[in-house]
Design a protein that fits this description.
The complex is a heterotrimer of chains A (about 290), B (about 100) and C (about 160).
Chain A lengths: L1 H22 L10 H15 L17 H11 L5 H11 L26 E3 L4 E3 L1 H11 L10 H12 L14 H15 L9 H7 L4 E2 L2 E2 L12 E3 L4 E3 L1 H11 L10 H13 L9 E3 L1
Parallel strand pairs in A: 5-7
Antiparallel strand pairs in A: 1-2, 3-4, 5-6
Chain B lengths: L4 E8 L2 E8 L21 E8 L2 E8 L8 E7 L6 E8 L4 E7 L3
Antiparallel strand pairs in B: 1-2, 2-5, 3-4, 3-6, 6-7
Chain C lengths: L1 H21 L19 H4 L4 H9 L3 E3 L3 E4 L3 E2 L5 E7 L4 E8 L6 E6 L7 E6 L5 E9 L2 E11 L7
Parallel strand pairs in C: 1-9, 3-9
Antiparallel strand pairs in C: 2-4, 4-7, 5-6, 5-8, 8-9
Classes of the chains: A mainly alpha (about 290), B mainly beta (about 100), C alpha+beta (about 160).
């Protein structure tokens, strides 16, 4: 009697399960809801690392590991990005051949605006990162575009980030299907496993944030964009987030995309949106 | 070309705290480039600081000092506006110097 | 007339090269034509052990001292940039040197402190592998040392 009832219950549960499974593919994908995603994303980090203050998320692994933080504080007494900062400021204030300058291309003359990038350009229907905006400005004024990984472009970003320190990320995803599609593409890339190691971005920077990967402490995805561009000791120079994306993809043994390719711009858009509310800390210094 | 030397020297209460950062590869001679060839050694050997015509600090460096090297030390004396002369010379005979003002 | 000379020179240079190679001198950071700045302690910087480097730089034995404060990380975040600082309460300090015991060349930095300069210095060093950082302080003409182990691990993110 008892057993047969149990069997019946199990059978019923199994049938229900099968029905749910059978129905699942037929269900429409939920409408993109970036703000709900952001709240859940940030709640995860705040729940798992309750001691970390909002202003500290932009300091990456140093928010989560005391031993590393001490070394970083020693480095920050005279950070190695100071040369790039000086070079970037000089370039930013240089007049182009036509008499204009970078300031003429940006809102608020380019000062204190890094937290608004990337943005979705509703005219061209694509994500515009700060790097893209800098090169658009150059090309519009008869200057050659710069490489997207390092060098002068990274130096200009260094200066622009520096003028924006303390300003919280304020990325907008307009209610435009193209913007939502770009956001969703970035999100999908972030959570998709790839490469021989079969890691997603989230495997390291969400699930294992603060843990060691051999000698390194994995940075939390929350606020990870806030410190860029960074002087990375491994590079021995200043580099952009786009360069880091290439490196991360190589490290999981997958074929990287080109810096500022559509998918990397979408990824930067998604990641920056996730950090809305976290203050800019860049330029940063990392191992 | 901007200077390879950046310095912060703060005089207060009779002592001056000096921090400097130098833009230099500090190649050790043990690292290979992307083509697998060793990058020849290239590093600063001597770095000096002079205040009021007197040497207040000398660093002898080898290839084990980090790229874009940093140094911090403190000397007695120094007042806001004083000159501090920083000079370096490397193993290839290249050199640079800068005279900075102490800040208060 | 000229041919034998050339051959002889060539042979000599080959011999010289092989000698250098077998003694490992080719790996020296200083090329034969390199310029050495006046005062730079070339001999001490070429030594491969702690004892040899100390002997070349100071010519005397080291005494351990608890009056030296040596700060270095337990685990370096990157062996290429290890922040190290030394300060001491020992009197009349004229020199502070830093060594990394398992680097290809032991001596990393050597600081000369004239009277009036405080016996404290901070810098950033490269460490090839897990080993000790050794701080050596010359006080009243004698040398004292302190050491600390620093773990240098391979990076997971491209190290």
């Amino acid at each position: 009697m008892f057993h047969s009832r149990l069997r019946a219950a199990a059978l019923l549960a199994g049938m229900l399960g099968a029905m749910v499974l059978a129905q699942a593919p037929a269900r429409a994908a939920p409408a993109p809801n970036p703000e709900a995603d952001r709240l859940a994303f940030q709640a995860y980090f705040r729940k798992n690392y309750p001691a970390v203050k909002n202003s500290d998320w932009g300091n990456g692994p140093y928010a989560l590991n005391a031993g590393m933080r001490k070394q970083w504080e020693a480095i920050m007494q005279f950070p190695p990005y100071e040369f790039a900062l000086a070079a970037g400021e000089k370039e930013f204030n240089r007049k182009f051949a036509n008499g204009r300058s970078y300031a003429d291309c940006f809102p608020n003359k380019g000062i204190g605006i890094r937290q608004n990038y990337p943005y979705f350009d509703t005219k061209t229907g694509e994500v515009v990162t700060l790097g893209i905006a800098i090169n658009r400005c150059r090309v519009a004024n008869g200057e050659k575009p710069l490489g997207y990984k390092k060098g002068l472009l990274a130096a200009i970003e260094t200066y622009m980030a520096h003028t924006s320190r303390g300003k919280p990320f304020d990325i907008k995803v307009p209610n435009d299907p193209r913007a939502l599609a770009a956001y969703e593409a970035g999100k999908k890339f972030f959570y998709s496993r790839r490469g021989q190691l079969n890691f997603s971005c989230a495997s390291c920077h969400v699930q294992k944030a603060g843990h060691r990967l051999r000698g390194d402490i994995l940075a939390p995805a929350l606020g990870i964009m806030a410190a860029f561009p960074i002087y990375r000791s491994k590079w021995g120079e200043m580099g952009t987030i786009q360069w880091r994306f290439v490196g991360c993809n190589k490290q999981v043994r997958s074929v990287p995309f080109k810096p500022q390719s559509k998918i990397y711009r979408d990824l930067e858009y998604f990641l920056s949106y996730m950090s809305n509310g976290v203050p800019i800390t860049g330029p940063g210094a990392r191992p | 070309m901007s200077s390879t030397i950046r310095v912060r020297a703060v005089a207060s209460g009779g002592t001056t705290v000096v921090q400097a950062l130098i833009n230099h590869p500090m190649d050790s001679g043990f690292v290979k480039n992307s083509k697998g060839k060793l990058i020849p050694p290239h590093y600063i050997e001597v770095l000096t600081f002079e205040h009021a015509g007197k040497k207040v600090f000398t660093a002898f460096w080898g290839p084990a000092v980090s790229k874009d090297p940093y140094i911090k030390f403190t000397f007695k004396g120094g007042a806001k506006g004083d000159d501090l002369k920083i000079s370096w010379v490397d193993n290839l005979g290249k050199h640079d110097s800068l005279t900075a003002k102490l800040v208060g | 007339m000229h041919a034998p000379t050339t051959t002889r020179r060539f042979t000599l240079s080959l011999l010289a090269t092989s000698c250098l190679a077998t003694t490992g001198l080719l790996a020296m950071p200083r090329a034969a034509f390199a310029f050495d700045a006046p005062g730079w302690p070339a001999a001490a910087f070429s030594k491969k052990t702690e004892a040899d480097a100390i002997a070349a730089l100071y010519g005397q034995k080291l005494t351990a001292s608890d009056k030296i404060r040596l700060e270095a990380p337990d685990i370096a975040e990157n062996g290429a940039v290890v922040p190290v600082s030394v300060s001491t309460t020992l009197p009349n300090v004229t020199r502070i040197s830093l060594m990394a015991s398992h680097n290809p060349f032991t001596l990393a930095a050597d600081y000369v402190l004239p009277a009036g300069t405080e016996p404290a210095v901070a810098c950033r060093l490269k460490m090839a592998k897990t080993s000790d950082v050794i701080a050596i302080v010359e006080s009243n003409g004698k040398i004292y040392g302190a050491r600390k182990s620093v773990k240098v691990t391979l990076g997971g993110c491209g190290g």
